[in-house]
Design brief:
alpha+beta, 2 helices, 125 residues, elongated
């Protein structure tokens, strides 16, 4: 859940710059400061995301992650075309029913295939 302070700051000082496929909304501070170097100080425009649903950083897709972290100043286009080899972005599913559980996982019954004989356990001298 987004905090009341974030929503208030967004309402007062935020300028929406885009939305991703998951419904997350991306903002920057109105008037957007640019990087100013000199005098030993550096200032960048403030950028943030208001999550749709549960607040989870892994819900931010790679194209927006780069913009949020000032890797690029270009916002991703709304009609960003994916390459045929690219998969859809998935957030971290740990702790959900969709989490990956490898063979032998306790969640999957705790049974794994027997060793094939190519493994030799270490024993101290």
């Amino acid at each position: 859940m987004t905090t009341l302070g974030t929503l208030l700051f967004t309402w007062l000082r935020g300028e929406q710059v885009g939305t991703d496929a998951a419904g997350n909304k991306y903002y920057r501070e109105k008037g957007g400061r640019k990087i100013v170097k000199g005098g030993g100080m550096e200032s960048r425009e403030r950028r943030w995301v208001v999550y749709h649903g549960i607040v989870e950083a892994s819900k931010v897709p790679p194209e927006w992650h780069g913009w949020l972290h000032h890797t690029t100043d270009e916002r991703p286009p709304a009609d960003l075309e994916k390459r045929p080899w690219q998969k859809e972005h998935l957030p971290n599913l740990t702790g959900t029913t969709l989490a990956y559980h490898p063979p032998g996982s306790v969640v999957r019954g705790g049974h794994r295939a027997r060793a094939t004989g190519d493994y030799e356990a270490w024993t101290p001298n």
